[in-house]
Amino acid sequence: MAGYKGTREAFAQALLDLAKEDHRVVFVSPDSLKAMRSTKFAELYPENYIEVGIAEQGAVDTAAGLAASGLVPFVGTYAGFLTMRACEQMRTFVAYPNLGVKFVGINAGLLGGEREGVTHQFYEDLGIVSSIPGITIFTPADGNQTYHAVRAAYEMEGPVYVRAGSGREPDVYKKDDLFSGEGVTIWKEYGHDVLLLSSGFVLDRVLEAAEILREEGVGVTAADINILYGKNDSRIIEEMGKAKTIVTVEDHNINGGLGSYISRLVTENDPKYVTRIALTSFGESGPAKELADHYGFSPAAIAEKAKNTAERGWRS
User: Fold this and answer.
1) Tens digit of pLDDT for each residue in 276-304?
2) pLDDT in tens, 245-276
3) According to the model, what pLDDT value does residue 16 have?
4) Which residue, among 47, 2, 4, has the nearest Cα to 151 in the 3D structure?
5) How many helices, marked H, and strands, marked E, lie in the chain?
6) CA dist., res. 157 & res. 215, Å (int)
7) Alpha carbon distance 216, 208 (integer Å)
8) What secondary structure, in 3-state letters, does 22-43 show?
9) Cα separation of 250 and 165, whole Å?
10) H-type helices in the chain, by residue range?
């Protein structure tokens, strides 16, 4: 079966399917109908579509009221417009009363640089949301996983933030692969010198890096982390316990995302050496592949850092 075209299209299809199954599903749009690829949703379910205009704070407040009334509202727009402009509303009017609002932030990471540039690349969103108690964070790796992440968010009580992209994410998962409730999926297991952890839209590059490491004699296990700061991290801790060293890779600021999450788990449960591969500066405009390579996400660059990390484990 063919996969979804991208994370935005996957969200739109999941929303359509959910609305068909449950009349309580509502889409609240802060002038984001086209960006979220949800024009068809508005046509088919006009009573379930609320347009508030360019007013992200108002969208979140509206969704909070809908959730308090027993509906299941989704708020979708650009990740930064949502988590930065409406951070207070997400915190105080959704997370604090633990209301079931589902947030979907698109254009997260560098990959949107070709079309929309620096102002619409967002790599601070996870750091912001992870500082708010009670919001569950989903980081699907591609469109196929985004579809199932949206459905999983619908099933979950309380607020959820689903991190989506620009539409340039290569498919890694199959269309019917469900979203892991354990927060981790093991993709390759060639040994335990280094545990190579991916989060989000760099999974294809991490898997290529794992093959390079295998060919160079490094015992590597590569895995996808799809839930950050989750309520049940026992499965992730189990995998970390097998590894001598750990490397995290994410298209996000080096603070507040996967690297921070794993570093905390390591410190609290099984101290060992961790290398974080992430952004340490603002991005820039450019084609997605070239941008990712430039900022250190090429398979070769990931493999080199992972090999250096594994060598620390060998020496110890």
Assistant:
1) 999 999 988 888 889 899 999 999 999 99
2) 999 999 999 999 999 999 999 999 999 999 99
3) 98
4) 4
5) 12, 12
6) 44
7) 13
8) CCCEEEEECCCCCCCCCHHHHH
9) 13
10) 7-21, 39-44, 56-68, 79-83, 87-89, 125-129, 143-155, 203-215, 234-242, 258-269, 288-294, 299-315
